[in-house]
Amino acid sequence: MRKILVFTDLHFTEAGQGIGHLDPATRFRDGLTHALAQFGDAERVIITGDLTHHGHIAQFERLRDTLTDCPLPVHLMLGNHDTRANFRAVFPDAPLTPNGFVQQIIDSDDYRLILLDTLEETHEVPHSGRLCAARLNWLDRALGDAGQRRVIIFMHHPPMDVGFPAMDEIGLSNKDAVLKLLNSHANTCQIVSGHVHRTISGTAAGIPTAIFKSTCHQAPMMLTDASAHASVDEPGAYGVLLLGTDGVIVHSEDFGLTDRREIVYA
Ligand SMILES: [Fe+2]
Hints:
Elements: E1 2-7, H1 24-38, E2 44-47, H2 57-67, E3 74-76, H3 84-90, E4 104-107, E5 111-115, H4 133-144, E6 150-154, H5 165-168, H6 175-185, E7 188-193, E8 200-204, E9 207-211, E10 237-243, E11 248-254
Parallel strand pairs: 1-2, 2-3, 5-6, 6-7, 7-9
Antiparallel strand pairs: 1-10, 4-5, 8-9, 10-11
């Protein structure tokens, strides 16, 4: 089956600056190296936002330099920690919609991958996301002319609450409108997101959803009130999507566990 590698929430900082004791660039490099060693036959890499921790030019530049040697096509998306103007300055060739949003369509014979831009820089609730009317109209057209292809939606903010009150407060502010639009076309078979920094799966208005861990810091299991900034140093992870003739299989692979991964036959 065709493979797609998915990374999310890299949170690149400037060289010499970490998040706690973690260096986001090192963690991402470790994850990418791990993924390429195991799944070098993947067709592409999709990174679903929070590329940087503060949206600084130097942070995007550090990511750009890190990706220079990646042998696979890499598609970059934005999250709530990014800044659109600085991203465009460092990645001037990234596909944009006519309105300047970082959204794109990747087609094959049987699948349409739709990459959305949920960054809302004038948010009433900092770090929440939104698809404004222009982005929804673009999505409506992208869904409408997909033909017989199955659609996979990639969006930083998941379009549903996940049961973590602090994260749900900074979720997608118009999730109902997005899900209504997706279901009106009835061709989306999978939604893939980040933002929460934890492996989560479920459904959103009947559509299968998957959320992957960050490559760097993770959210603790917090079904009661807690800060959206609460983080733990669990292993980072990336996603492996298997695109088959009958549908999509979603795997999440932790990396940095090599010493514990010697195979024994129990
Ligand atoms: Fe994040």
